[in-house]
Amino acid sequence: MYNYSNLLGKMRSSGMTQEAIANAVGKNVATINQKLNGKSYFTQTEIDKICECLSINPNEIPKYFFTH
Fold first, then answer.
1. pTM score, two decimals?
2. Which residues of 38-62 are buried (b: 16+ CB within 10 A; e: fewer)?
3. Which of 11, 14, 15, 13 is nearest to 32 (CA)?
4. Less Cβ around it within 10 Å: N or C end of the chain?
5. Neighbouring C-beta atoms of residue 2, cutoff 10 Å
């Protein structure tokens, strides 16, 4: 299971809510919440869209999405 605390911190510092992220990736808020709570995984497409929204450099993807 991955720890998304860095991603949640980045969302907060960027002023992005789970609802805004959900809209950006075309999912509902419940789905994003489940992913952030480790009940399912983000797809590559979702990761790419979230990185675009949050201005996350591709080199930083492991820090935000693949930290145990």
1. 0.92
2. eeeebeeebbebbbebbebeeeeee
3. 11
4. C
5. 16
What number of residues does the chain have?
68
What is the per-residue pLDDT across 23-67, written as a single tens digit (0 to 9) for each? 999 999 999 999 999 999 999 999 999 999 999 999 999 999 999
What is the identity of the amino acid at 16? M
3-state secondary structure of 37: coil
For residue 60, the 8-state DSSP code is: G
Half-sphere exposure of 51 (CA within 13 A, CB side): 17
64 contacts 9 by C-beta, under 8 angstroms: no
Q: How far apart are CA 23 and CA 42, in angstroms?
A: 15
Q: Which tokens sit at 31?
A: 């789905």
